[in-house]
Specification:
With 381 residues, the protein is α/β, with parallel strands linked by helices. It is built from 14 helices and 13 strands. The chain is globular. The protein starts with a strand and ends in a 6-residue tail after the last helix.
């Protein structure tokens, strides 16, 4: 059986890209013939090094270059067209990118649905947001809400929060499958956590995009003690991320925090792990985060997470570690910096263990095999 996995680019090195690789690997390692469809050349060695994962050699990669950047307006309808063309080359089509459920999709892993109550109304004429992409995509939203049948599809959501949005807005049932955290990221015992003294360091890992609300970090830092330092880690891969990065640097300078707020753009995976290993706290600034894979990764390394009290993180971050305001975040950071201990850190590691990569793979294959059996799609031997 030929299974196609659709992800336009693997070069961003984010959570969605990691999910795509793990799904492709899981299918290949369970006897399926896997084809990965992407817009850009895939550097297996670099991907393996960054994600600390072996890219299964049996996976065939088909590259169809595109001049359209992912996540932008022209990409919206190009994705629809390309996914339809690529589906014809496979027996089963797995979409981990589009955030939409096309009639020809068999399996959709949804990080958060494109059609949601933040941008659209539940009743016609639907349009709620006046942003260009929402306006231009309105015809598709009409189609998705009225003509897409969820029967004979496997819809997977990355959190109960996302699954609830899919059901409330689209009326479709989704299975919850939390994203994977690489087993290589886990610290396994108190001795490992205690072997090196941790610094009064707060780490944030994020794409440099305005939606991530990273501008809160300098303000939060200004409300904490002078002995508390912050590091922001992220990748710069286009003009939008570059402009966000430069804006953050200007704000940090304006607040006279350049000695306490540092940036690590383009940090290697090794640098990320080294930084998390010496940090006490992980700060997440997004509001309504759909899941927050970087939060789970930091917890696996023994960091205490401080996250906004909204979205998917509410499902696994203890209530006392969730904030509602910048002042609240600063207070919690100050407290956790002072009370961090290997024993408390190990509790965070234990919470993160349910997101281990092998658990994700086993659960995905269980969902996938059941779907194949229920829909009577024949598997070639």
């Amino acid at each position: 059986m030929r299974v196609g996995v659709f992800i336009p680019t693997l070069n961003v090195y984010g959570g969605a890209e990691y999910v795509a690789i793990v799904i492709a690997n899981a299918l290949a390692q369970n006897g399926y013939q896997v084809v990965l469809f992407t817009n850009n050349r895939v550097n297996r060695q670099e991907i393996g090094k960054f994600f600390t994962i072996d890219f299964d050699s049996s996976i065939k990669v088909i590259v169809k270059p595109s001049l359209v950047r992912p996540y932008y307006l022209l990409d919206f309808y190009q994705t629809i067209f390309r996914s339809y063309i690529f589906k014809s080359k496979c027996d089963v089509w797995v979409d981990v990118y589009s955030r939409r459920i096309f009639p020809w999709t068999n399996v959709a892993y949804i990080h958060f649905p494109f059609s949601n109550h933040f941008d659209y109304r539940k009743k016609f004429p639907y349009l709620k947001s006046r942003r260009l992409i929402q306006v231009c995509a309105a015809p598709y939203v009409v189609f998705e809400r009225n003509f897409v049948d969820g029967n004979k599809k496997l819809i997977l959501a990355n959190s109960r929060y996302t699954a609830g949005e899919i059901e409330n807005f689209l009326g479709l049932k989704a299975e919850v499958l939390y994203p994977p955290v690489s087993s290589a990221n886990f610290i396994s015992n108190v001795q490992d956590l205690a072997e090196k003294e941790r610094e009064n360091l707060v780490v944030t890992i994020s794409r440099f995009r305005s939606s991530k609300r990273l501008e809160k970090i300098p303000y939060i830092a200004s409300l904490t003690g002078s002995n508390t330092h912050f590091v922001i880690i992220g990748r710069i891969y286009d003009n939008v991320t570059l402009n966000t990065f430069l804006s953050l640097q200007r704000l940090t300078k304006k607040l006279n925090l350049t000695d306490r707020v540092k940036f690590l753009p383009e940090a290697s995976r090794l640098e990320v792990k080294k930084t998390l290993k010496i940090a006490k706290v992980y700060l997440h600034t997004s509001v309504g985060e759909h899941f927050g894979i970087s939060i789970a990764e930091a917890m696996a390394m023994g960091c205490i997470p401080i996250v906004h009290d909204s979205g998917g993180p509410r499902e696994f971050v203890p209530e006392e570690l969730r904030y509602k305001s910048i002042n609240g975040a600063a207070e919690k950071i100050t407290k956790e910096i002072n009370v961090w201990s290997p024993q408390k850190a190990l509790k965070m590691v234990k919470i993160a263990e349910k997101f281990k990569e092998e658990n994700f793979c086993n659960n995905f294959i269980r969902f996938f095999n059941r779907y194949i059996e229920e829909t009577s799609i024949k598997r070639e031997t």
